[in-house]
Automatic annotation (TrEMBL):
<keyword id="KW-0143">Chaperone</keyword>
<keyword id="KW-0378">Hydrolase</keyword>
<feature type="domain" description="CobW C-terminal">
    <location>
        <begin position="362"/>
        <end position="456"/>
    </location>
</feature>
<dbReference type="GO" id="GO:0005737">
    <property type="term" value="C:cytoplasm"/>
</dbReference>
<dbReference type="Pfam" id="PF07683">
    <property type="entry name" value="CobW_C"/>
</dbReference>
<feature type="compositionally biased region" description="Basic and acidic residues">
    <location>
        <begin position="312"/>
        <end position="359"/>
    </location>
</feature>
<protein>
    <submittedName>
        <fullName>Plastid transcriptionally active 17</fullName>
    </submittedName>
</protein>
<dbReference type="InterPro" id="IPR003495">
    <property type="entry name" value="CobW/HypB/UreG_nucleotide-bd"/>
</dbReference>
<dbReference type="InterPro" id="IPR027417">
    <property type="entry name" value="P-loop_NTPase"/>
</dbReference>
<feature type="region of interest" description="Disordered">
    <location>
        <begin position="312"/>
        <end position="363"/>
    </location>
</feature>
<dbReference type="GO" id="GO:0000166">
    <property type="term" value="F:nucleotide binding"/>
</dbReference>
<comment type="similarity">
    <text>Belongs to the SIMIBI class G3E GTPase family. ZNG1 subfamily.</text>
</comment>
<dbReference type="Pfam" id="PF02492">
    <property type="entry name" value="cobW"/>
</dbReference>
<dbReference type="InterPro" id="IPR051316">
    <property type="entry name" value="Zinc-reg_GTPase_activator"/>
</dbReference>
<dbReference type="InterPro" id="IPR036627">
    <property type="entry name" value="CobW-likC_sf"/>
</dbReference>
<keyword id="KW-0547">Nucleotide-binding</keyword>
<dbReference type="InterPro" id="IPR011629">
    <property type="entry name" value="CobW-like_C"/>
</dbReference>
Length: 457
C-alpha cells in the first residue's frame, strides 16, 4: 500500500521497510530505487509524494538479513491519476523549516561561530538549541548576552544530544514548531564538543513529527587548526568512535578555525588530512569563525537538487578568494578521462597521505564514470550495498545515468536512510557521466567500484 501525501502542505513522512520478505513473490530482486520514467506534464499543484512501498525486497543468498531494516525516503513526484506508479517527474518543492547542526571538537569555536551568525545582518529569525554537557549553560549565557536577534535560545543541559537527550531534542523542536511556527526562519543547533553527529542527523528522519516540519539543511563542522591533529590521531578503544573524525566525516561545510594560531604548512597538512576523511564538504579557513552567512545557512546539504555540487570535484570546494597559496592538493587527482565504461576514481585513503601514520578507518571515495547503468543491476547493487554496509557508509551522494530513464537520477543517504529521485532531463548531447561519492568506515573501495562498473551496459 502506498502512502500518498499532498505536496500542497509540503510534508512527507517515512516508512520503515523490511528488507527481506519471506513470501516467494517478494524474494525477487525488486527493490526499486530507480524506476523507468514516462514523460508527463504535471502542474505542480498536482504533484504528490509517493513511496515505493509496494516493491521493497531484495534477493539475498541467505536470510541473515531477515531482521535488518532500513528506511527508504523518496521525494518522487507522481501523477495523481490511476496509472501513476511509474511516473516520475521533478523534485517537489520543500517548504519545511531548515535546521543547521553546528558541531566540532571541544573549543574549536562553535559558540564563536554561533555568535557571529546571530550578530550578523542577515534578516533571518533564528531559533537556537544549545547543548551543553553539564549543569551550567555557559555557552547559552555567552550567546544570549551577545544577541538580540535569536528568537529563542533553548538549552539542553542534562546530557549529550547524540545520546541521552535525543528525546529532548525531538520534544524541543516539536515545541518550537507548535508554539512559534512563523516566528522563526531557521533553527541552529550547537552540539557538545563530544557529540557524534550521526544520531542527531538521523533524528531528522526517524522522528516523523520533526521530518514533517523541519528539514536538515546541513552539518557545519568547526576544526581547531591548532589542536585538531592531536584529536584526529587519538586511537580509541575498539568500538569507541573518534568524535573528531566523525564530526568531519558527516560535514557539509568544514571551517578550519583558529588559523591565526598556526602556520601555513600546519593548515595545509590538516586540510589534506580532512580531505582524506571527507571529500564532499566545502572547506574554509577562518579566524574567530568569520564566514559569510550563506556559507553556513541555506546550504541544502541533504537536498537532492543540490547533489551535483556535492559530487563535483572537490578542487572547487575550498575558498580560494582569501587563500591563494598552496592548494595543489585539492586539484591533482581530477584529470578524469570520461571514456565510456572507464571509471575515474578517487581513493582518499592513507596511500595518498604522507602526514600521518594512523589509519582512522574513515575515508572518502568517489567514482566518476561515463556510461549508462542497467536499471536492474543498479537497483541490485545499490540495494545490496545499503543492506550489507549501511552501518559503515556514513554518507553517500550520487548522480546516475540509467538506461531507459530520461532524467538524471540523484540520491543521497546517511547510513540506512536513502533518498532518491530523478531530477532534470539529460540534455540531448550531454555526456552521461555518473558521479558517486561515499564517505565511510572500512570502505572496500575496489569492491565498491567493481560493483558499480558491473552495472554499466
Ligand atoms: N585565537 C583564536 N581564538 C579563537 C578563535 N575562535 C575562537 N577562539 C577562542 O577559543 C575559545 C573557545 O571558543 P568557543 O567558541 O567557546 O569554542 P566551542 O567549540 O564552543 O567550545 P566548547 O563549547 O567548549 O566545545 C574562546 O576563548 C574563543 O574566543 C580563533 O579563530 N582564534
Amino acid at each position: 500500500m502506498a502512502a500518498t501525501i499532498s505536496m500542497e502542505i509540503a510534508t512527507a513522512t517515512f516508512r520503515t521497510l523490511d528488507i527481506l520478505h519471506t513470501s516467494a513473490a517478494r524474494r525477487q530482486p525488486n527493490l526499486r530505487f530507480l524506476k523507468r520514467s514516462k514523460s508527463v506534464n504535471l502542474p505542480t499543484s498536482q504533484i504528490t509524494l509517493k513511496y515505493f512501498s509496494s516493491s521493497c525486497g531484495l534477493l539475498f543468498k541467505s536470510n541473515q538479513y531477515a531482521s535488518r531494516r532500513f528506511r527508504l525516503f523518496t521525494t518522487t513526484a507522481t501523477a495523481t491519476d490511476q496509472d501513476s506508479s511509474d511516473v516520475l517527474t521533478k523534485i517537489p518543492p520543500d517548504n519545511r523549516i531548515p535546521a543547521t547542526i553546528i558541531t566540532g571538537f571541544l573549543g574549536s569555536g562553535k559558540t564563536t561561530l554561533l555568535n557571529h551568525i546571530l550578530t550578523a545582518d542577515h534578516g533571518k529569525r533564528i531559533a537556537v538549541i544549545e547543548n551543553e554537557y553539564g549543569e551550567v549553560d555557559i555557552d547559552g549565557s555567552l550567546v544570549a548576552a551577545k544577541t538580540a536577534v535569536a528568537e529563542d535560545i533553548v538549552m539542553l543541559n542534562n546530557g549529550c544530544l547524540c545520546c541521552t537527550v535525543r528525546g529532548d531534542l525531538v520534544r524541543m523542536i516539536a515545541e518550537l514548531v507548535e508554539t512559534k511556527k512563523g516566528r522563526f526562519d531557521h533553527i541552529v543547533i550547537e552540539t557538545t564538543g563530544l557529540a557524534n553527529p550521526a544520531p542527531i542527523i538521523q533524528t531528522f528522519y526517524a522522528e516523523e513529527e520533526i521530518f514533517n516540519n523541519v528539514k536538515l539543511d546541513g552539518v557545519v563542522t568547526l576544526v581547531d587548526a591548532k589542536h585538531a591533529t592531536i584529536h584526529l590521531d587519538e586511537i580509541k578503544p575498539k568500538g569507541v568512535v573518534n568524535e573528531a573524525i566523525e564530526q568531519i566525516a558527516y560535514a557539509d561545510r568544514i571551517i578550519v578555525n583558529k588559523t591565526d594560531l598556526v602556520g601555513e604548512s600546519d593548515i595545509a597538512s590538516l586540510t589534506k588530512r580532512i580531505r582524506i576523511i571527507n571529500t564532499m564538504a566545502n572547506l574554509k579557513r577562518t579566524e574567530y569563525g568569520k564566514v559569510d552567512l550563506d556559507y553556513v545557512l541555506g546550504i541544502g546539504g541533504f537536498d537532492l537538487e543540490r547533489i551535483e555540487s556535492a559530487v563535483d570535484a572537490e578542487g572547487s570546494k575550498e575558498d580560494h578568494a582569501s587563500h591563494k597559496h598552496d592548494h595543489d592538493h585539492d586539484h591533482d587527482h581530477h584529470d578524469h578521462d570520461h571514456r565510456e565504461g572507464d571509471c575515474g576514481h578517487e581513493h582518499h585513503d592513507d596511500h595518498h597521505s604522507h602526514d600521518h601514520t594512523h589509519d582512522p578507518g574513515v575515508s572518502s571515495m568517489s567514482i566518476v564514470c561515463e556510461g549508462t547503468l542497467d536499471l536492474e543491476k543498479a537497483n541490485m547493487w545499490l540495494g545490496t550495498l545499503l543492506t550489507e554496509q549501511s552501518e559503515d557508509i556514513y554518507r553517500m551522494k550520487g548522480l546516475l545515468a540509467v538506461d531507459g530513464m530520461d532524467e538524471r537520477f540523484v540520491f543521497q543517504g546517511v547510513h540506512d536512510i536513502f533518498q532518491g529521485s530523478p531530477d532534470r532531463p539529460w540534455e540531448k548531447d550531454e555526456p552521461r557521466v555518473n558521479k558517486v561519492v561515499f564517505i565511510g568506515k572500512n570502505l572496500d573501495k575496489e569492491e565498491i567500484e567493481k560493483g558499480f562498473r558491473a552495472c554499466l551496459i
